[in-house]
């Protein structure tokens, strides 16, 4: 599922040792992670669909999608546009909201210390309010949805064929069932869901898939990490949980270039993790999130990451995650921040319909599709509206980036790109404020 780099074992060992030492200076390159956090949460207000609230901060956006569901006799107004076009896709939207919620669970105190806790909750609520609307009657959600998915198994894009051309379920449905069961276990502490994850560990791929990417489609790496974090010392599930943990650490070691075989994640010459050319930064940002979370877990349990080539300390895992964050924020061969609005140089022609066309608040005349295409899409001028906080697809395998709207593989931003970075931004900001880049995770405040 990912590109392969073929090294000899000898080459791997030297590259891996050099890579670890290369991480250390990065800890002393401190960017404004609080600003990055603030702008990343602001981005979700630019992606809102529906009737915008009185406290909307992205002023160039206006109400949209106010008749969604009208023909079907239901109210489907609200939610988020997934990327640069005016479409709401349920699967990536759910993934985005999960990432935001997980960030608050792990780093709520850090987000609050940056003054962004209310904005994080607002970003989550805008999505969850839509999902509540999308169900036929009150409270037919949560557990009922899991029971439905387990009883009527199958890929969602087999029943919603229109989604297949945009968000096809290539990994199938089994990882989603494990994903749902795990979160229900964490929410309810009901042993049924833990038993489900354990009993289906092999048949559903939980302990058989060795994964080097985490995305809206392929969730195994995060599933394996979540199980690895369960506080189980001994007990009837110990062996299965250890197998999950081994696969979680395989993912971590692959990102660190510390596996013996050829399944390590390749990197650009500038040091960026590289999975594939279309929206590569989605895989980088999710890797950053999982590695940040796991570094905290290793530290809190007094463990190290045991890779094939060598052991890696928790602070080294975090240092690598930080190096990827810093690359995204501008410490890269292009000197470009791929977080729009951060720094002095960032993409000016983001593939984003609303950002590319003059705001309705300034120009209320009708703009048809043809006019929009020829007048705005093909225009070489910078976008009239800056979609602050968007994380675009990013550079190619040679660290090169072409700032052009038509170059959607690189210039389009997606909600899940940014959502994955909310937690790491907060973690890095808080760690620096605490004068310790390896500060341990704190619990989030009561609300």
TrEMBL record:
Record keyword Hydrolase present: yes
SUPFAM superfamilies from the UniProt entry: Six-hairpin glycosidases
Pfam families linked to this entry: Glyco_hydro_9
This protein's UniProt keywords: Carbohydrate metabolism, Cellulose degradation, Glycosidase, Hydrolase, Polysaccharide degradation
Domain Glycoside hydrolase family stretches: 144-423
Catalyzed reactions: Endohydrolysis of (1->4)-beta-D-glucosidic linkages in cellulose, lichenin and cereal beta-D-glucans
GO annotation, biological process: cellulose catabolic process
Active site: 351
InterPro entries associated with the record: 6-hairpin_glycosidase_sf, 6hp_glycosidase-like_sf, Glyco_hydro_9, Glyco_hydro_9_His_AS
GO molecular function: cellulase activity
EC number(s) stated in the UniProt entry for this protein: 3.2.1.4
Coiled-coil regions listed: none
Family: Belongs to the glycosyl hydrolase 9 (cellulase E) family.
Name of this protein: Endoglucanase
Record organism: Cuscuta europaea (European dodder)
